[in-house]
Amino acid sequence: MRAGPVRRYPGRRHGITGNGAPELLTRDELALTGVLAELIIPQTDTPGALAAGAHRTIDHLLKACVPKRDQADFRAGLARIEEAALAQGGKRFGALPQARQVALLHAIDNGTAPFKGTDQHFFRQLKSYVAFAYYTSEAGASKELAYLPFPGGYTGSIKVTRSTRTWAI
User: Mean pLDDT across the stretch 69-78?
Assistant: First the structure.
């Protein structure tokens, strides 16, 4: 997992209220979600998850689509990552060297100390949120993936005249 300098990719603005504040997460939680997202899908020759705004999309999805109990579980998972970073490195997760961040993510992914099985479930959920947010963003859908509005092309087979009627669905 290698991350380089992050360029802001003009994409969605989900997760931002009218005043620029996150919708559900605190600013610190949103920043941590951004760091985690970039470690999960880093910038390569295509924009990474942070540049695509995946962390803001996740904030929006949590607010709009996730039950309050699951919202609380997500925020608790973020807090456990910060606690583990402070306990092992004396710094917040975002301030740790990247190698240390990756080591903590491997530990949470494997459910090994200092993390537990519930943390492993949180991290798997986070990875699915990041993948969804990234691959439904403009950057993920058009820069990372090949995008064809009509795979294989579209060839209409009905001659349209002035008297042709359309279908109501």
Answer: 97
